[in-house]
Design a protein that fits this description.
Domain C2: 1-126
Family: Belongs to the copine family.
Protein name: Copine 3
Largest sheet: 7 strands, mixed
InterPro entries: C2_dom, C2_domain_sf, C2B_Copine, Copine, Copine_C, VWF_A, vWFA_dom_sf
Number of strands: 26
Number of helices: 11
Helix content: 10-25%
Structural class: alpha+beta
Radius of gyration: 28 Å
GO molecular function, one term: receptor tyrosine kinase binding
Shape: flat
Length: 525
């Protein structure tokens, strides 16, 4: 999906939002009291969209313990596509004042919300204010998603409905309404079954919150024909379809047909956080364009030129996307490749070479390792061409295909391609994307420089589903393209927010389609 620039880099523009509840406990804290043990309290801070720290809240104080388990929890908004910094500071409280300046500081933990939810239970040593170990004490943060992700699966049919059309049979559809305090609110409308008085509608799914606010005792209304409470799962039943006006006018009126509920089953639909907290890893691969159109890296006009501040658009894009994704990969080892360059020692053009020049181990340690490998690679290759995407897409797709054999939602692959120009292997790339759309894989393309990126927009599925040259349609839209120039004012955080906003839904919808569960089953709601 194509994305435009966000006006700010803050969570206010994020698309994926969920509520997360955090609980805090500590072990083996420093004992700052002479005649008793410490009386600990934990205060939580987060950064705003302006990168300013603000206080989220405080736990209760627990007297005389070095191993507190705080009962107060904290509900926060979780945004996948934003790096949300969070800090937990532990104090020994010795007085009744709100100010903490006169209390003993026992240590703190600064991390990201992404690190907490990806591990589900994060335990780290407490640090001093100078970021060195406090000497003693650990803190444990446990995250739980606060979301009712139950859905109701329906299979419905009807029999002998009233004939409404003059020249043919009726064209029936169903509308299901949720009861509110004052009215009925439409929750779902089925497709129309043409010319049929005994139709069977396609199976459909309605979120339980949309159907009855999570209350399975609340009544629902179907097509304004009958009223019934949501039945317990699984369920099969028949209800008379009553036309109230017809019943009043027609003596001996029985019904206007029968509505058949063939299936009504409440099930849990796993969310993105269910998959992440259940052990799914996001595997991040970086691919960099080393074609000649970038210009000589030694000259300031080149897109690969690194200025005295250590900046170019390639590095900015790597940092922006990688800083978010890295929290969801436990080992933080990221393969990084280049394409379009002549590579030593043979000086043959390669469209899939590891930028650390180690084909047996193309992994870099963290985003810092990717940046370092890129900087060291630049002077060792000769920029050439052409611009070919299909080799690296097929490369990552091979690993995604292997992951499907595990029969659980254990891995999802994210390929970042940073490029400056027009693609030359369009037909092969279209086929590669169509094939990859059936695998646990998404592709992010960031265009740097001022080139014409209309071909990239074509690969994005905004104007209809992408098809291969043989006419085969992609199963889903997995390509997200943005030109870097649209974010030069908004900043790199806004860039990351834009290109990653749809990824949670892409991950969850893929695993739903293949009925894959998280490696570790989350606790029931």
């Amino acid at each position: 999906m194509a994305a435009g620039p966000a006006p700010t880099a803050g969570p206010g523009n994020a698309q994926f939002l969920s509520k997360v509840v955090l609980s805090v406990s500590c072990n083996n804290l420093l004992d700052m009291d002479v005649f008793s043990k410490s009386d600990p309290l934990c205060v939580i801070h987060m950064t705003s969209s302006e990168s300013q720290w603000y206080e989220v809240g405080r736990t209760e104080r627990i007297n005389n313990t070095l191993d507190p388990k705080f009962s107060k929890t904290f509900e926060i908004d979780y945004f996948f596509e934003v790096v949300q910094k969070i800090r937990f500071s532990v104090y020994d409280i010795d007085n009744a004042t709100y100010d903490l300046e006169d209390d003993d500081f026992l240590g703190s933990l600064e991390c990201t919300v992404g690190q907490i939810v990806s591990s589900r239970k994060l335990t780290r040593p407490l640090l001093r204010r100078d970021r060195k170990p406090a000497g003693k004490g650990t803190i444990t943060i446990v995250a739980e998603e606060k979301t009712d992700n139950r859905v109701v699966n329906f299979e419905m049919a009807a029999r002998k409905l009233d004939k409404k059309d003059f020249f043919g049979l009726s064209d029936p559809f169903l509308e299901i309404y949720k009861q509110t305090d004052t009215d009925w609110q439409l929750a779902h409308r089925t497709e129309v079954v043409m010319n049929n008085l005994s139709p069977t509608w396609k199976p459909f799914m309605v979120p339980l919150q949309s159907l009855c606010g999570g209350d399975i005792e609340r009544r629902i209304k179907v097509c304004a024909c009958f009223m019934a409470p949501p039945p317990p799962p699984p369920f099969q039943a028949e209800f008379e379809c009553i036309n109230s006006k017809k019943k009043q006018k027609k003596k001996g009126y029985k019904n206007s047909g029968v509505i058949i509920i063939k299936k009504c089953e409440i099930v849990r639909q796993y969310t993105f956080l269910d998959y992440i907290m259940g052990g799914c890893q996001l595997n991040f691969t970086v691919t960099i364009d080393f074609t000649g159109s970038n210009g000589d890296p030694r000259t300031p006009q080149s897109l690969h030129f690194i200025d005295p501040q250590g900046y170019n658009e390639y590095l900015a894009a790597i940092w922006a996307v990688g800083s978010v994704i890295q929290d969801y990969d436990s080992d933080k080892m990221f393969p990084a490749f280049g394409f379009g360059a002549q590579v030593p020692p043979s000086w043959q053009v390669s469209h899939e070479f590891p930028i650390n020049f180690n084909p047996a181990n193309p992994f870099c340690a963290g985003i810092e390792g990717v940046v370092s490998a890129y900087q060291q690679c630049l002077p060792q290759v000769k920029l050439y061409g052409p611009t070919s995407f299909s080799p690296i897409i097929n490369h990552v797709a091979c690993f995604a295909k292997q992951a499907m054999q595990q029969n659980t939602a254990s891995q999802y692959f994210v390929l970042l391609i940073i490029t400056d120009g027009v693609i030359t292997d369009m037909d092969q790339t279209r086929s590669a994307i169509v094939n990859a759309s059936r695998l646990p894989m998404s592709i992010i393309i960031i265009g740097v420089g001022g080139a014409d990126f209309s071909a990239m927009e074509f690969l994005d599925g905004d104007d209809g589903m992408l098809r291969s040259t043989t006419g085969e349609a992609a199963m889903r839209d997995i390509v997200q393209f943005v030109p870097f120039r649209q974010f030069q004012r908004a900043g790199t955080a806004a860039l990351a927010q834009s290109v990653l906003a749809e990824l949670p839904d892409q991950v969850a919808s893929f695993f739903h389609a293949f009925k894959l569960k998280p490696p570790t089953e989350p606790s029931p709601p």
